[in-house]
Amino acid sequence: MKNLYLQLGLAPNASQDEIVAALKAKPELSDAADVLLDEPRRAAYNRAVSTLSSIGMLRNRLGLDADQTWFVETCPDFVPRLNMRKYVAPTPPAEVSGATESASAAIGVAQPSAPSSRNYKPWIKAAAIIFTTAVALALWRVFF
Amino acid sequence: MSIGISNLAGMPQDHRAKLENSVKLLLLWVAASDGKLEEAELEFISAQFPDRAGTITNEEFLAVIRGADIDSIEKAIRMVAAESRELRLAFIDMAVAMSMVDRDIAVAENHILRFYADALHLGLANLEKRFQAISGKPFLAPGDPSDPQWWQQWQQSGAHIKSEAEGEHATTVDSGTAAPMSISQARAVLGVSLNANHEDIERAYENLAGIFEVSRVEAMGAAAVSLTNSRFKKIQQAYWLLQG
Asked: Is B19 a residue whose pLDDT tops 50?
């Protein structure tokens, strides 16, 4: 099951107008209109979204989706580790990145790699040099 | 394979209480996930609030479940996962029975059952086996309510089930406090097909009576016992209706 809200960059309690606007911006998701603009369907769909979100978080906590499981395959939108960036930094609808990616592309989302050399503030660098020199001097005086 | 009295006595009191609450919460999650409560679910739920029997409203109850955060569900599932394989299987049987109350297993319920099977180290294959044994039907893939095509199929099948139930409304049996049951409901409870003969019905009844046996769930506390008892009564009622 898709998380249409995630793919449209909307909150689950978005208004009808917001949904219409988001659907116009993403014509490839126009099918979603038949679900989200029909009140009884949307209510039932929202319950499924809320249950699947809970299941996704629980599966993550219990480490059940470390590998490719049926859940990762059929509900990738609800696997927190695959949607980490989207969940952590909610952005305005127009700027949500990767929302149009297919499920397999979403699985391959690369995490930003850690910087190879760390950029410390200059005063920390200076303090570290002074401290190291002092320790070296003290040791030299003890042993020689 | 039944859990003897000596085992119960050996179990520390606070462990038993925690396990009972865990089982209760996990079963309530199945009952409430589709956002509406059927009669049998309400029966189970009001049994969990004995001082308010019959007076607790759907809204109040759903508020209780919404209050149950991810943390408590996680604790509960870890608690049950640490139990014996017999006990975990008995728990899955109860969860399947709870999901079958609405006749058509809902999308959310289907996912919760799959999650329980994984989290309890039983796997999908065991869940499929238990579901087939209890309902007489295969455990299908969950539907996709994000797909408009699924909604069209759902509406067609929903209309079909409704007309069937209305057609058989006249054939009911009254057994004390339990709600009247139609022939088609009785067949669904026993998991037998339209052309099942007396032997098939007999076999289905004996199989289910063995599954919903109180001694299997005693260690999980009063909630589990009451659910198993009411399921057994329903199975008995269906058996009498079909064999009578």
From this structure: yes
